[in-house]
Amino acid sequence: MAVKTSEHYLRRARAMKPRVYMNGKRIENITEHPVTRTVVEANKASYEWAMDLQGEGGRLFRRPSHLNGEPCNLYNTLNRSADDLLQRAAAGLYAAEHLGTCIYRCVGCDAFNTLAATTFEMDRDMGTSYNARLMAFLRHVQAEDLTVAGAMTEPRGRRDQKMEQWIDPDLSLRVVEKNDYGIVVNGAKINISGAYASDWTIVLPSGARRPGEEAYAVSFAVPNGEEGMTYICQYTPYSAERELAESDRELGNPRFGQRETSMVVFDNVRIPWERVFLCGETKYAGKIVTRFAQVHRMVCGGSCKVGFGKVMIGAARLIQEFKGLDKVPHVNEQMTEMVTLLETVRACSKVAAIEGREVVPGSGIHFPDDLLGNVAKLNIGNAFWRIMALAGDIGGGLIVTMPSLKDLKNPETREYVEKYLGFGSETPAEEIMKVTKLLQNWTAGLHGVGTWHGAGPLQAQKIMVQRLADFEEMKRLAKEMAGIGGRKADPGR
Amino acid sequence: MAVKTSEHYLRRARAMKPRVYMNGKRIENITEHPVTRTVVEANKASYEWAMDLQGEGGRLFRRPSHLNGEPCNLYNTLNRSADDLLQRAAAGLYAAEHLGTCIYRCVGCDAFNTLAATTFEMDRDMGTSYNARLMAFLRHVQAEDLTVAGAMTEPRGRRDQKMEQWIDPDLSLRVVEKNDYGIVVNGAKINISGAYASDWTIVLPSGARRPGEEAYAVSFAVPNGEEGMTYICQYTPYSAERELAESDRELGNPRFGQRETSMVVFDNVRIPWERVFLCGETKYAGKIVTRFAQVHRMVCGGSCKVGFGKVMIGAARLIQEFKGLDKVPHVNEQMTEMVTLLETVRACSKVAAIEGREVVPGSGIHFPDDLLGNVAKLNIGNAFWRIMALAGDIGGGLIVTMPSLKDLKNPETREYVEKYLGFGSETPAEEIMKVTKLLQNWTAGLHGVGTWHGAGPLQAQKIMVQRLADFEEMKRLAKEMAGIGGRKADPGR
Amino acid sequence: MAVKTSEHYLRRARAMKPRVYMNGKRIENITEHPVTRTVVEANKASYEWAMDLQGEGGRLFRRPSHLNGEPCNLYNTLNRSADDLLQRAAAGLYAAEHLGTCIYRCVGCDAFNTLAATTFEMDRDMGTSYNARLMAFLRHVQAEDLTVAGAMTEPRGRRDQKMEQWIDPDLSLRVVEKNDYGIVVNGAKINISGAYASDWTIVLPSGARRPGEEAYAVSFAVPNGEEGMTYICQYTPYSAERELAESDRELGNPRFGQRETSMVVFDNVRIPWERVFLCGETKYAGKIVTRFAQVHRMVCGGSCKVGFGKVMIGAARLIQEFKGLDKVPHVNEQMTEMVTLLETVRACSKVAAIEGREVVPGSGIHFPDDLLGNVAKLNIGNAFWRIMALAGDIGGGLIVTMPSLKDLKNPETREYVEKYLGFGSETPAEEIMKVTKLLQNWTAGLHGVGTWHGAGPLQAQKIMVQRLADFEEMKRLAKEMAGIGGRKADPGR
Amino acid sequence: MAVKTSEHYLRRARAMKPRVYMNGKRIENITEHPVTRTVVEANKASYEWAMDLQGEGGRLFRRPSHLNGEPCNLYNTLNRSADDLLQRAAAGLYAAEHLGTCIYRCVGCDAFNTLAATTFEMDRDMGTSYNARLMAFLRHVQAEDLTVAGAMTEPRGRRDQKMEQWIDPDLSLRVVEKNDYGIVVNGAKINISGAYASDWTIVLPSGARRPGEEAYAVSFAVPNGEEGMTYICQYTPYSAERELAESDRELGNPRFGQRETSMVVFDNVRIPWERVFLCGETKYAGKIVTRFAQVHRMVCGGSCKVGFGKVMIGAARLIQEFKGLDKVPHVNEQMTEMVTLLETVRACSKVAAIEGREVVPGSGIHFPDDLLGNVAKLNIGNAFWRIMALAGDIGGGLIVTMPSLKDLKNPETREYVEKYLGFGSETPAEEIMKVTKLLQNWTAGLHGVGTWHGAGPLQAQKIMVQRLADFEEMKRLAKEMAGIGGRKADPGR
């Protein structure tokens, strides 16, 4: 059957031998290293959910393949109706609530959808056969229930220069050779989430649109750790903390940690033609970028971050109760503000799904409403920082000044820590400290910047809103009401 | 047939003889007085839309009666599904876009729905027959396609006193006598929209909930201008301007003007039992308040104000173009911000409708999701002021310093005004001035305060959000992630 | 003596015969017309304050002439120290608190200072004698204690065109002829405050800076109602209300009303050379604009609007107390927020004064710190709308729905109004209604847009902040801390 | 002489033997441990500045002792004029700009000032001799140029309980015994900055005000590592990162790191009478809290965080330039917004100093204006999070996804990192990475929560603003303008 257990995945992950570096050293075993194994854990969870037939997980993370009707993991399927989009959004929310970090199959899923619509369009327009290739690849992925990461490359040269002015042409990923076997690519993707623990990675082009930029208009799938690929991991204070910890239990998000990304470098990597889904067609590169954003902003901005926010509110609420502040008006006002912000974003995301439609007629692939998806992301960008500030207020200065949980074990300090961090409440200090540590993870770490930039910085969304807004309709309404050329508003009394 | 023309309504309005005062004088004819006739015009529009069978109006403003299947004006029907709620919200948006002020049948419609559910519940619980009375009244209203205003009374005594401490018991509307015929009521409703031009007014109780407050737990329907009723109209600078104008064309919203309210005083008004829908049952008074808010906040906060906002954006966009500012980044950022704010509110309102449900099982009446309705209102309260500020920025200081359109007619000044208010553009000064006047109406008038308080001030919504938020679920998620008593989050490595 | 009574001014005002139009009609007597007389009243107040030797007024509104040491009204003097700037800011605050509208001598005062510094600079650089002309004019103004309005003209053509592309060269004020007597000017200033009731008006150039724009680089003084000048007044709902009122007492700001502006048209107006202070020197036109903004933003943004805000807070506080809401936490939070916003702006303005300096060395004229002045204005632009929203919340929906005070006099309605608008408190309804009417004036009228645009829209301030910020210093600090090339931050451990 | 070199301090620090724990282990040598030594470094800097006689440091960090006229380090002196307060604020700004963390002598300095005024008042009122004790202690501190930390204890029991209801009386620091020698105290201060590396710590009481709380009204000085004292350090991801780093150069703030705090536990610590400055006088405990906040909020909120913000803006500006985004309007708008926020706070702090005054007449000690100090803190609380968000936007996702600087050294990855993190600019990747790492320190770490809570959470400031605002004056202005009982506003026309 096409829905596999997490054991299947773990076995494959153990066999992966990607070239991964972190903090100046090579990582030999991604399933054992304390940092990279959090990625494996998150991927495993996605298999566990799909197996949870009695629970919410089974309902959300399973969907029949449109190719053969077999049940598949949601992340390896296509959105073929507004209801599918609602399921997609709900799954994103569930994943976020339970992981507190990326589910690393998310971008791959959105990449499949983007390419499914766009290769259909290319084939229709140009008589190519990209769509068949993609479907063959998808069929394989579904059959084995593989994890697929997605990587939309970016222009990394100076922004005030055109691509051809760059000091190095590799500053965005490009095709350097085409031959009978396939293509050879050079370049890098900065900031890809969790690819080193995925079976495959789908690469999408940055929006190379102009004549002369054909080499950059490229999309393909590449297996984990293909020759020529190097993963250089992010390294943050949170990485160090996890490396040094004796037990995950000391940490803010014990099992799943931070969204772990790496730079992935392609140094003359060979891709066979059957895994190439775009090669030189600049006209469609821009469409891929737009459509990917269309689906990804709904999920990443509008669902996932709502899940994170719910955890923050829950933690702040616990602290409020531990301290005996349940009835203090200004704290309750803050709780209300946080809930209002989250519900607002959830609504935007849901309407984006409901108002979704088939953007390439005949392709069968549905995309969320673009305006609302962008609005969801714009709202969460600001809301997330605000929720951080408010949860940080309720959580207290202890969020950034708390001793280690090890000080609670150390017999020389244990009694002091227990007494003074117990808030004089009936809750054990350990529980208070764990909730505070969880809040540290959310309000004093990587999530503010991460949320803002995930799925593109806010300015990208603003540009889309400006482009998508129906100003003509609004001008028409204003003219009618002002009585300019309009019958209704001016009865000529 | 049960959908009538605006002529039918106008004939009735001409025959109404309510006791109406404005600015110290009695108004003899509400269909002729320049201010009160704007209410008549708005009500007329609601009949015109329902007759527009080819257009959007016919689609939005007609709905079959659940009593007999006859087509009715939407405002005289009940919401019996989530789709009905969507239609209700969409109609509210349409009305707002085209009127720029209240459609004065809106509160009455929401009052019918509130009472339909609650009288059903009362009859079920207590064996009363309120629901049958209400349906008989509704049947009459539908048959004649009458306009019905709604009035939720308020406690007008000091807020730091209980009702029984007030210096005057009439400071909220109350029953002063019961007899065979019916009841006698005393008191007032401050700020009721457009009642003096409605065929009927339904009165809802303020939330009298405590023992001893039975007299205040009262609901009934009363015909226009019943003996003992006095309407004392609002009087604002905009009223004066309309009184003084030679033609509606000089004004910011020529045909429909401002939301016109009045205080309505009940001085020993007699109500027959067949029009009484609540009388002393304090337990249900609070439910009526909550349910009314539940439906009204979705429409008034989430739909209507979005329509107003679209007009503001449209007008600001016209000015931007007249001035040649189309490509100026900071102005386009402002346009984007306004669109984002409105789409956000629209999404909240839509999800409130979609997530609507039958709150009294068996009643058949659907209400929007309460949390989202409140969130919609909270968002628009702040958003509206922000849109006012931004539209005011783009519209320019001229919004508050512009000469009269009469100065454009006066031969001694015409040439100057034409030249200097034409912005050196090809648009005639008259058009620029009319759009600017429209912006004055929106950004330098009654709408900021009106939007904030309509459907209750923001604090009322905050209290509801606090009450409705599922903090237990969020605490559970936080505990799971922090590894407190939870299996998933703590693998015990 | 050089400080005159308000009677002196009133006598002159009665003798003025400017060509003033409002709402399509000529105004014959500006001291009698209900709207224009509010300007006369405000000017009168400035004389009364300077005579109030025992009180705050005398301390704030008197200053010795630097020309002859005679005491003068502050508005006819120059700022020659940081202390003078503090006095100027404090006077602006006092005026605003007591007028609730413009003191119409404010712009003229700032124009004198701007020209004093810049004509000094021109004479020094070019050997002209503009400064002597200006001082002669100032001496006359001081001797007679005259009121002087100021008018900075603006480009009124399309913003995407250069001046020479405009369809009409008069779209900014310009010199059309020079001769032995002086110059002839054509054009208009839109939105000048109160000029029709001032003895003189000083015209400043818009920032004509480019070669070919010399005709627009012009500054001069012109007496009230000079031949060829026409004033076309603003006309708003508030104008109409005042026209219709039987007594000022019915109005929101009884004595002083709204900031009254007019468009002033110059149709071939002749100005003798001795009143010309700039004529063709484009290099200095930009400096005049900048310096005027430098002083005016401190006062208009940072002082005046703080005074307005204090009145709003005071009125909201009264309503809070009338309603018995003194101890309600969320209302007190709102009070706190309003106070915080105002104190913030006051601080910016004060520091602008304290950090003021002589920008043209040797001129003796001090200007506020430019960065802080712009920051003050930026803050108040947003803060004012926020205070409007909050005061409007506390004031209640009655702000926009209240009956007229005449309904309180009308025997047919009096009792009802007294009862229901008395809030069940011991405060008479009349007092509650007057305070509510005052809040209407502030929160439902012209002040939001007016505050935003007065002294230039916010974007103008943003541009200045961007230009004035010392980014080099901040980059240096960042590099030092990051250990880039810096000794201190990197001990090379 | 009373200004010593940093070597003097370092020698003493090496000799300190406090009982310090971090992450479950005892720290033997605070001058060597990679985390605790950052505190030593910051303290050393304060000595270096005072020695920098040619530079800004010497000007800002020296001040003559009021006891004997000897030059002292600013942190060991009293503020005896508004100019002193300005110097104090400027020194705080300078320290923050150069350290990017606490200068750990700051709270001690403010504690000296607070006690100097309050002991003077107590002696005057009660004939005690606290002031002489304090001055003797200060004389000693000045003579040796010692570092003094400050610790205001807090109630750590449930907030919905009174102190006597707490499950443990030690939940705030208290006197458990008085004898001939002095007092014995029990309890803890959570979150004291850097005390383990200070020569002395001054303890201030929490605001025990009620009868029965006398034991908690206690203030004293205690030398580093007195018997019975245990310091349990904060432990955050940043601590771990520093522990693991091979060189400070890999870190975001290489030399000075994070604000390092510890919980300090007093387990039956004996304090001789000559170091006791308050003991049982509840009436004055509240005054101490208020006065300490009065001076500390000006510096900590209004100066220090402005310095931090300047570093953030500088770093963001560098990234903007590296990327070639200098002319992009929306980025420049963000720069402008950040500068505006900081200048606003700076102004509030400066006016707090300028409007400072002697609050206890005759004491000679000046305190900043309380309202403005609180307003400064309120503004920075929100502004800091906003600046974090904006600097994080400009800095890019790399802030949270960047590889280690070690990956730049590793020959297997060096070339890749150099190429792809060089932005195609002429700036070496190392410099870009260091600036990005600096931004990580500021936008993805401890500073948001720290800034909000330092000097008390925002609600504490709001309460003060509410208490300090002159509502009576504002009500008077409103009444005058509304024409209620006022002559001026109502000419009785």
Descriptive account of the structure:
- The structure is a homotetramer of 493-residue chains.
- The first copy, chain A, is an alpha+beta fold.
- Chain A has a domain at 287-476: Butyryl-CoA Dehydrogenase, subunit A, domain 3 (Up-down Bundle), CATH 1.20.140.
- Helix content of chain A is 50%, strand content 14%.
- Chain A is built from 17 helices and 14 strands.
- In chain A, the strands form four sheets. Chain A has a six-stranded mixed β-sheet, with no helix packed on it. In chain A, strands 5-8-9-12 form a four-stranded mixed β-sheet.
- The longest helix of chain A is centred in the middle third of the chain and has 41 residues, at 282-322.
- The radius of gyration of chain A is 24 Å and the shape is globular.
- The N and C termini of chain A lie far apart (75 Å).
- The model of chain A is unreliable at 486-493 (pLDDT under 50).
- At the A-D interface, strand 7, strand 10, helix 7, strand 11 and helix 10 of A face strand 7, strand 10, helix 7, strand 11 and helix 10 of D.
Note the overall shape of chain A: globular
Low-confidence segments of chain A, ≥5 residues, pLDDT <50?
486-493
Q: Could you please say which CATH topology of the domain at 287-476 in chain A applies here?
A: Butyryl-CoA Dehydrogenase, subunit A, domain 3
Q: Mean pLDDT of chain A, as a whole number?
A: 96
Keywords:
homotetramer; 493 residues; alpha+beta; Butyryl-CoA Dehydrogenase, subunit A, domain 3; six-stranded mixed sheet; four-stranded mixed sheet; 14 strands; 50% helix; 14% strand; disordered C terminus
